[in-house]
Amino acid sequence: MLVAAAICPCPPLLVPEVAAGAAPELEPLRAACLDAIGVLAAARPDRLVVVGPADEVTRGPHPEGAVGSFRGFGVPLDVTLGAAEAAAERPLPPSLSIGAWLLSRADWADAPVEGLGLDPAQPAERALAAGREVATRAPRVALLVMGDGSACRTVKAPGYLDDRAEPFDAAVARALDAADVAALSALDAQLAAALQASGRAGWQLLAGAAEGAGLGGRLLREEAPYGVGYFVATWS
């Protein structure tokens, strides 16, 4: 069953080498993410599953030891998912690479790790069902859910300004803070896609995994520094 979850954003700028001169701006967000991973460790899971949006090539399972890279962002930096070595055939998607980077920063050695790249457009029903399946993978499962909110909070945002973005993000923040499974399950997939909210499928996977687990939530941080909604939260 699910015993804990950490919800983190996945902008490549979280990695200081990628952010370069902008790195200090996101230091509070990085610190909150590491605090969230600490909650996962405290739950003493038997397995940690890292989930996040992925393109068609990198969707699906990724074993411990899979490698991700930030070379596509102009930085000669590679990361490994967990501590074990594996002959992985596919690279990690950027979202899971950032998750792997956070775990390395937290010196994660508390449980075996696996990754799951998600289709960000998958229907809610599929995401919820995937979450229910993930929760059965070990007696005590933890989730690290990577994904961003809307990308339409300002005129300079990647998706330009959309008046629906701020209310959407506010609803997500409330649901994460309250560990509100029903509210996350009810998120509108079409609206999320229109607002370029990459985290929607992962949040609904979390909702499926958390059904009946009786977890409480805590929103550690919410901000939108580049017109994109970023959330850090824990469920335990």
Question: How many E strands?
Answer: 9
- Per DSSP, the total helix count is 8
Regions with little confidence, pLDDT below 50 for 5+ residues: none
**Order of SSEs, N→C?**
EHHEEEEHEHEHHHHEE
Rounded to an integer, what's the Rg over CA atoms?
16 Å
Percent of residues in helices comes to 25-40%
How much strand content do the residues show?
15-25%
Cα end-to-end separation: 12 Å
Strand order of the largest sheet: 3-6-2-7-1-9-8
Report the average pLDDT across residues: 95
Q: What does the largest sheet look like?
A: 7 strands, mixed
Please give a structural write-up.
- The chain is of the alpha/beta class.
- It starts with a strand and ends with a strand.
- It is built from eight helices and nine strands.
- A hairpin with a 6-residue loop joins strand 8 (217-223) and strand 9 (230-235).
- The relative contact order is 0.22.
- A seven-stranded mixed sheet has the order 3-6-2-7-1-9-8. The chain has a two-stranded antiparallel sheet with strand order 4-5.
- Helix 4 crosses helix 8.
- The longest helix has 16 residues, at 27-42.
